[in-house]
Amino acid sequence: MKKVVVLISGRGSNMQALVNANLPCEIAAVISNKEDAGGLAFAATRNIPTAVLSHKGFSSREAFDAEMIKLIDSYQPDLVVLAGFMRILSADFVNHYQNRLINIHPSLLPSFKGLHTHQQALDAGVKLHGCSVHFVTAELDHGPIIAQAAVPVLPDDTEDSLASRVLTQEHIIYPQSVKWFVEDKLTILENGTVRISH
Ligand code: GAR
Asked: 103-132+142-198: what CATH class?
């Protein structure tokens, strides 16, 4: 059975959705860069190994990422899942996990990269918004797209109401995407798109 390591920085609702989906893989560890990440307690209740590696105290991004690689690799994962892991990753980190590192981003990429994606969508006046699961490349919020889900933007939406509508979809497409990966159904084509074989 394939092993998956999940990285979080906060509440970890996407990680919880992955665990609750009972996917055909082993969640080998949940790792956070913040010791107060809410998701750690949930993982512990499910007897999933947890670890914390704070980025504070490291002299550089590269130094932290090198230590993170050591920690992650101690679990020998086939797949590393970023689930609200709020760190920009160094090129070395991304290259180390090439084609086995995925992320969920709360927008319909390539629109609205970076932070505050729901406010970005409201400000742009788009009528459809959503979320994307993608393989991670060295460019921020970029890389072959595995799955997307769209939601309507309603006239009275606030950042919070829109975030909540999108999050419901995140909890569907992330477990689905991980399932496809661990079942070897994803192929990254030469043109940088993803083919899903069913
Ligand atoms: C999710 O909405 C995820 O898409 C977003 O952070 C939230 C984490 O929630 N990720 C990013 O913005 C990455 N750039 P969670 O901790 O409850 O899963």
From this structure: alpha beta
